[in-house]
Every structure is written in structure tokens, then in C-alpha cells.
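#lab-general

N.A. 3:47 PM
ok so I finally got the sequence cleaned up, no stray characters, all 327 residues accounted for. can someone with queue access submit it? mine expired

B.Y. 3:52 PM
send it over

N.A. 3:53 PM
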Amino acid sequence: KMATLSSSNGLRHRRLYLAVAVASIIQIVVPDHPRVALGSASVTMPMLGYGTAAGVNSADVEMALKAGARLLDTAQATEWYREMDVGEGLVASGVPREKVFIITKLHPRDLGYNETLTAFPRSLTNLKTTYVDAFLLHYPICDRNMCPNDPPTGTWKDSWRALEKLYDDGFIRAIGVCNMNNREIQELYDFAVIKPHIVQNFMDPLHQDLEVRNLCSELGIQYQAYSMFGTQWDMQMGWNPVLTHPVLFHMAKQYDTSIAKLVVAWGLSVGAAAIPRSRNPDHVHDMFQMPLPELSEKDIQNINKLDGTLCNGRPWGCKAKPFQTMS
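B.Y. 4:20 PM
back already:
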């Protein structure tokens, strides 16, 4: 009986060793995700990355990197992000720093030239790095929710001049903005000595931000989408019309894929970089290890037609009722 137990344990140990060995091989094999050149910046950026908002921790970051993610999106705003976890996860993953494109963002309370120069080194410390690949202005203003007592002393224009200095000094490889509309982006473009390389805005199939995307294309700026899976709607309405949309549901079944991967494939097809977020290991592995579906032009156009079909594409104040059960 003892010999049988010992033999059984040995078999389990060999199976475990084999599983670990296979997992290690899988971690080394990183799919060739598409990259894009960023305007005047002498750098290319992965079009598919990993978002780290809303509770993502160091273990999640490590998991995503081992699954093949090579872009990490974070920010100084501790309301949603934890830069320190991103830095710790990167170190723990064993992936060389130079293989990972890191984006972080200025908290809007630090808008201002000197304020930005003072705030930026905190990101280097948190991320355990000597440079960041892209530094963005998170918001053009700081509203009462983020700056209830101490409004910033400067403006986004002051901060942009600071970003240009950090870029010239080699601490940043690309610069950009988030949450700007067409007028603001055009104003920035006309004002900037170093033109923006990235605009990161909210975009999903029901809110496609087409005017901003078209302007970015015209000006040679890479558009990057956040909240592609309907989270902005979910926060406002308590249900998610993207992950439950009948058109997307049936299309995903047609391609034998998830709605999430369908949406990412669509986003990349129309030129938008994507930074999906998940803490589910299976979902993360599937996103970064398994091929995305190749959508037909007809299906891309069918998703394009969903823009503005729910509450004119605006989740804020939307009172729409959930879609009927899908089958």
C-alpha cells in the first residue's frame, strides 16, 4: 500500500513537472501582435495591450505579461489605477523592460508646467523604470470629482510644454492626451511644438467616437480606445449593452469566438488600438495567445452601423432597458 501511494505521488509529481514545463514554453511563445509607428516618435507601439484599471494588481499584470501582453496601460490616478502594482508585476514576470511598452498618465490635479515635471518622477519610481514609453495628459481639466478642494494651478497647455521637455530629455518616447474632443485636439495640434502621438478616448461599438478618430487619422495621430467592452454603459445603467447585444452575440457565434474578442478584432480593423482589461486568467490567455477572428468587410460594416443606436451613443443618463435574453 505504501509502495502504491509512493508510486501514485511520483506520477502526480511527474505530471506537475510536465505541466509546469509546458506552461513555461507557452509563456515564452509570444504571438506577433501588430504594431504601429507613432508619428514623429522613433518607436512602435503594440496595437493590442493590457489595461490595468479597476483593481488590477501585480499578480494580474504578471499573468498578462506571461500570456503575451506587451503593452501595459496605467495612470497616476489612484482613483482607478495602481502604478506600483504594474511595476511589481513587470519585475515579477521576468519579461525584459525593453520588451514592454508602458503608458501612464498625469493626474489632472498636477496640470501646470512645474507641477508636471515634479509629478512625473513618481511614475518612474512606481513603475521601477528609468523611462516610460508614452506619457499622456489624463484629462484637459480637473473637475470637482478629482479635484474637490485643490484645483490645479496650471493648464493642459502648460503641462504639454512639460511633456515636450521630458520627451526631448529622453524620459518619454511618445506623448499624447486622453478624453479630449475634436476642438481640443485641433487646438493642441496647432499649439504643440512636438505633435501628439496618441489620443486615448472612450470607444465601443455603440459609441464609436468617429469624429475624433477621423481627425486623428487626418493629423497622423494614433487613436487608442478604452472601455471597449461596454463598461461605461454598465457604470451608468447597471447593465452592459455591448456584451449582451444581439447583433454582436450572433456574430460572435458565427466566428466561434467571444464578444470581447470580436469587439477587439473590429477595433483593430478600423484602426483603433485596444487595451482590454480582465482579471480572469482564461480570458487573458485567450486574448493574447489565441488568434483574433478575421472579420469580413460586411461584418465590420455591420458593427459600424451600431454607432449611436442606443441613446445616441451616450451612456450618461441613458435609461434604456436590457436587451431580451439571447439564444
